[in-house]
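Look over what follows to help learners.
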Amino acid sequence: MTESDAPGLNRVLPSEAEALEAMARAIWPAVYSGIISADQIEYMLNWMYAPYTIRSEIEEKGVSWYWIESANQRVGFAAGGPLTEDGDYPLHKIYLLPEVQGTGLGSLTMNALSARVKALGGKRIHLRVNRENKVALKFYKRNGFELTAMDRADIGSGFVMDDCLLAKNL
């Protein structure tokens, strides 16, 4: 893929929360099986991708959700923000359907998101990624992110997130 193949990033509407949840349920087992338990995958999907959560983040919390589109089809999603006063932009999510992973679309999406954040005055993007998700860690490092810290967060019901914290200056 080339820059001319750049993905479309179109805002997720609150009314599309159910469609987004369905896509997350198609992606997450492929990404996280073997990294976290099936019970934790289900717990996190119910927690982070419930339609009311997505709508609340869009309508009340200033989180920007985007459909990632290629060849006029939705092939993933991303969410981030809001941008802080000092120019930090938290990237909460970026996921692609398994059939388009490894095609270069993720890097093109990251470039498009980075340009969008920079145009808004952003100076740095930061994110968390499961420390056992070697594919994602390789992807982020290839796209200019550096490890800033390790973190272990209790997320309830006996589950934790063991994450690497990464950041990229724009």
